[in-house]
Design brief:
Layout lengths: L1 E3 L1 H9 L4 H8 L3 H8 L6 H11 L3 H4 L1 E3 L7
Antiparallel strand pairs: 1-2
Protein name: XRE family transcriptional regulator
Pfam families: HTH_26 (PF13443)
GO molecular function: DNA binding
């Protein structure tokens, strides 16, 4: 099972934000944003910070995709 952050990118569009806006508001590094863009695993702290900034729940920004294998 792999993680997918398409919901996060759709939410940013709905809120008229770009990835840079999210990075600046959360204080994330470009590396963390790159991991999100590539649907890679990030820490729970990262997800919590995103939810806090966007005022949403984890399920609103990500989902697990069955059948899709994670890259090592």
């Amino acid at each position: 099972m792999a993680v997918c952050y398409k919901k996060l990118w759709k939410m940013l569009i709905d809120k008229d934000m770009i990835k840079k806006d999210l990075r600046l508001q959360t204080g994330f590094s470009t590396t963390t944003m790159s991991k999100l863009s590539k649907d890679e695993n990030v820490s729970m702290d990262v997800l919590e910070k995103i939810c806090s900034v966007l005022n949403c729940d984890v399920g609103d920004i990500m989902e697990f995709v069955p059948g899709k294998k994670e890259e090592p």
